[in-house]
Design goal:
177 residues; alpha+beta; SH3 type barrels
């Protein structure tokens, strides 16, 4: 009987300890989903497929540069070909970017000459009027630090244009390389 009283008292104590501590949380979770309704946006209207026939014969090639509307192939002055008027000079075989100015010379008449070095390390002496580079470049002026030349070139649209370029004198470190 004592055992039964002890077991009954333990059950009463445990029942008394089991309060509704989380009852408000349980009620919130139960009520949270009551007023919620899922709303899914309707799918957009699918437009029917319209086939397109690509006819490239009537359109301009997108991978070639476009010519200006008013451009004429002979708009600029075309330089005379080497075989027409003069022999090609040795420095016309090299791109201008590969030539290097390494010095100047001055004669007793105060006429300036420039020393030009090729990629093969050959040295050439040039004066005003000589040709340089592959764009019909003619030397227009030589100073102690630079060679100025006028080039005539054909751009992607076929128009001949002029530009002024120059070669600068190399520093001592650059000329040793």
């Amino acid at each position: 009987m004592i055992r039964a009283c002890i077991a009954l008292s333990i059950c009463v104590l445990l029942w008394g300890c089991g309060t509704d501590e989380y009852e408000d949380l349980k009620q919130f979770v139960a009520d949270a989903g009551n007023n919620m309704r899922g709303r899914v946006e309707p799918l957009p209207e699918v437009k029917p497929y319209e086939p397109f026939t690509y006819d490239a014969f009537d359109l301009q090639d997108p991978f070639k540069p476009r010519k200006p509307e008013n451009a004429d192939k002979n708009a600029g002055e075309r330089p005379a070909q080497a075989s027409e008027l003069r022999r090609k000079e040795a420095l016309e075989a090299y791109p201008l970017e590969s030539l290097k100015m390494v010095g100047t010379l001055e004669d007793k008449n105060k006429k300036m000459y420039a020393l030009i070095k090729t990629p093969e390390n050959n040295l050439y002496q040039i004066r005003v009027g000589n040709y340089l580079g592959q764009n019909f470049g003619i030397v227009t002026m030589i100073t102690e630090t630079s060679v100025t030349l006028k080039e005539v070139f054909q751009d992607a649209s076929g128009v001949w244009s002029e530009r002024t370029s120059s070669l600068q004198l190399l520093d001592e470190e650059e000329s040793k390389q």
